[in-house]
Structures are given as C-alpha cells and as structure tokens.
TrEMBL record:
One Pfam family of this chain: PfkB
CDD domains linked to this entry: FruK_PfkB_like
GN (gene name): pfkB
Signal peptide residue numbers: none
Superkingdom of this protein's organism: Bacteria
Domain spans labelled Carbohydrate kinase PfkB: 24-289
Molecular-function GO term, any one: ATP binding
InterPro entries: 1-PFruKinase (IPR022463), PfkB_dom (IPR011611), Ribokinase-like (IPR029056), Tagatose/fructose_Pkinase (IPR017583)
The keyword Cell cycle is annotated on this UniProt entry: no
GO biological process, one term: small molecule metabolic process
UniProt key word Nucleotide-binding: yes
Protein name: 1-phosphofructokinase
Organism: Streptomyces auratus AGR0001
Amino acid sequence: MILTVTPNPSLDRTYEIPALDRGAVLRATGDRIDPGGKGVNVSRAVAAAGHRTLAVLPLGGPAGAALAGLLGAEGIEVAGVQVAGQTRSNISVVEPDGTLTKINATGPELTAEESQALLRRVGERSAGVDWIACCGSLPRGLAPEWYAELVARTHRAGARIALDTSGPSLVAALRERPDVVKPNAEELAQAVGRPLATLGDAVKAAEELRAWGARAVLASLGADGQLLVDEGGVHYGSAPVAAVRSNVGAGDASLAGFLTAGGTGPAALAAAVAHGAAAVQLAGSLMPTPADLDTAAVTVTGDVPLDRLLTEPTP
C-alpha cells in the first residue's frame, strides 16, 4: 500500500501536434485529459501495476471534482481535503520527436487551516502503509518547511517516506532524513549549486545530498539513465528506448516502480528504470502496465562509468 501526497494537483490536458508554430492555428492529431501532479501520477502508476494506493490531495471547485472522478475511474482511492481555491489546469503540447512544451498554472493559495488539514489527513490515513510518497511543488500558502514537517511526522509514526521535490523545499526537508529523495538532473544540480557534466558529477552531487540527510538518492538523468546512491553504494541503471512519445510523468512512473519493488537496492532501481523507459513511449501522461515493461532490456551495474558525459549537461 502506497500513500501519495500531492499538495498542488492538477487536471492535465495533452495535445499531440505535427509541429509547434508560434502564432499559427494548430490542429491536434490527438488529445487527452488526465489527472495531474507528481504524487497523483505515482498513484496512477502504482494502480496500473496492480498495487493498492491512496491519494491525499487538496481539491477545489469543478476542476477538483473532475480530478477526483478521474482518479476514481482508475481505481485510486482519494482522501481529499476541500479547499476554497480552484484546482489548477495544465496544458502540454507534444511534437512527434518527443519535444514537450508545458504551460503550468499556479494553482490555489492554501490557508493555514487548509495546510494543517492536509497534514492531519495524511496522519489519519497512513496507518499500515508501506510507503508515503510526497511529490511536486508546494502551492502558495505553504512554506518550504511544510515537507520537512511531513517527513518528521511520518518518521514519528514509524513509516517510510519518499520525497520528490526541488529547491528550498528539498533542502529544508533533508534535515529530517527522508528515506528516499528523487531529483532529476536539473534539480540535483540546483540543490548543490553547480552544473553537472558527467555521471561522476551526478554521483558526487547525490552523495552530498546523503551527507545533508537523505538516506538514499534516486536520480533520474533522462536519456542517461538513473542513479541510486545509498548505504549499499552507487548503482547505475539504463534501458534502450525506441522512440520517445511523451516524457510527462516518466519520473513519477520511475518512483512508483522503485517503491513497488521495495524501495531499496539494485532490484528496485531496475524496476524504476523499466517503468521510466516504458512511460516515455506512451501518449500523454499514461502510466505503464506490467505488459508495457521490458525488464529484460534493463541493465543495472555497480561499475558506474563516472567519466561518461551527460547527454544534456545542466547549465
């Protein structure tokens, strides 16, 4: 059972177009609307894999009601906290080569009472869960320390927690020793304050996050694969991808794969890589099912090529 927390969820509409031509009237070759938000996507991937999941999130207005309905249709139990503001709606535009352009709305501003209600709801529903996954940016009204408070409460309750966020929220939470943090390459570079040009740079940055409090770091490096740095050492995983259709939610699918495989060690890293590789080959933010996974194509090794250049080095 995996409980997810998404403080700033969304409705996500994705359009597939032949090319993005500014100022022109474009005709979509495909479109879909999905529940959105990083924690929501983790729940969707967990459910698609056949595991139980519960989504805790603030819901506001007609968009919030629609979001809850979409999640229910996917077999996901929702523990919503009603808020006065309107749940946000985001737009993604995907070109044939996989290039993604996103327009993310800001989302509602939560009051102090709504913030506390969200923390209480997590506590009320966390008994017996295997993992709590807290994911995404914080909405207006929540201080960067909000995730740190959630990590502390989770550990006092005896549960394990995975955190996928960035910037001040990530740095503030590290002092509470989250069990897993899952940055991408850009977020990892931002956290340590320097560019990453090689896999070795990424490993050193992940080790710094561990020194600051993270018990394990699962780093998504896009086309360059994934790194797991924990008390067992450093492991690197990769898998070939025939064609990228959309990378929306791919990192969330990776985290879901990692947690459903136990959340520790090389086997969990292999599951994360398989889920991420499958997700980028699906339309919109569709989450992979077991039939979509090519586990035989995944390679995991402890012999990390530290001098390998990253395909897209961070600035």
